[in-house]
Amino acid sequence: QCPCHGTMRGYVGNQYKTSRVVFYPGAQYEGYWKSSHMCAQLTDTIPLFNAIHPNAVAVFLFDQSSNHKAYPEDALLAQNMNLCAIEVKDSDSGQGKFRDSSFYVRKQYDYAEQQKVFFQKKSNEEKLKEYEQRSMYRNEAERYSLKRSCNNVATADSRCCAIHIMEGQPDFANQKSALEEIVEGSRHKFELYPKYHCECNWIERYWGAAKKEARRECDYSFQSLNRKINSFLDSVCPPE
Q: Domains (ranges, CATH) in the chain?
C-alpha cells in the first residue's frame, strides 16, 4: 500500500501491474504465503512505485515476521553449515548453496588485501586454502578441538565454536534479509517496525477497515467474498 495511492496500479512498460496480490491459502489451494511470495510481490511493486513516483525514494516498512526477516536461499549463514562445510564448501555436503563473497586478509606491513571467495566455482583444495587464509583456526590443535556449535551466546572473542567464528566474519555478519536486499538493491530504504508492536503498522487499520466493509456488505458466502474482495479493499484506500 502507498500512503497517497493505496493499492498502486499502472503500466510498467507495456505490462499492467498492481501492488495487490489475492492469494488463496490452504493445502488444497495455493499452499501458504512464504518469503518467496513476498519477494515476488515486492519485486513487482518496486518498478510500479518508480513509475508512479519518478525520482522518489520509498521507505518500505515491514513487521518483524518470519517471512519479512527470512534470508535469501544463498545467504551466508554459518548455522546452515556443518563442520566440514565450514572448512570446505562441497556441493555434496548436504548444505545449501552459498553465494560468492569476499574477505580481507592481514598481510605483511599491516595492510589488508581483499580476497574473493567463490563458493560455487572452486575446487575443494582452493576453498580450503581460502578458509585457512581467513585464519579461522589459530593452530592445528584448535582446528580439531573446536565444536561446530557451543549452543551459547557468542563470547567476547567469538572463538568458542566454529559457528561463532564464522558469524564474526564481516561477510557473514553483514548478511541482510531477502527483502532488505531487494529494497536496497533498488536504491530505496528498508525499515522494520519495533518487535512485538505490529499495532504501529497503519496497514492493520487499513485491514480492519476493509474487514468492517466486508462484514457490512458480504452475505458470508465464499463465492460472494471472492467476487467482492477487491471492491472491499478498494473502498478504504487510499487511506485517510
A: 9-71+178-235 (3.30.420.10), 74-174 (no CATH)
